[in-house]
Amino acid sequence: MRKLKLEVQLSIDGFAAGAEGKTDWMLWHWQPEWNWDKPLQDFHTELQTSSDTVLLGKNMASGDFYRHWQQIAGSKENPQQEFANAIINMKRFMFSRKLKKSPWKDVELLKETSKKRS
User: Fold this and answer.
1) Which intervals hold domain Bacterial bifunctional deaminase-reductase C-terminal (predicted)?
2) Which residue has the higher pLDDT, 117 or 100?
3) What is the DSSP string of 4-35?
């Protein structure tokens, strides 16, 4: 059996984004600079480099998540490059009930195939 690691930022009341979808309240929200201290950077880099698969919801996969990390992975001067390369080199799966195909050629779309359990 494989291990599942969860990395998520939620507000204290359980929201992952503001009312209009903004994530500017998060510790990190896809900004060019990495404003974390070194121990936090190292922790998250180790989390990514020790993983081989990333599971994405439709909103994250359809948004700028993947495009952002592709850009960072190509920048040797960026201190986030190791972190970004880990994400770009992982297998990526996206969950959606509505989409017919993945927005990215190398992100596999997983659809619900069984009926809901009561």
Assistant:
1) 3-102
2) 100
3) --------TTS-SS-TTS--TTSS--S-SS--
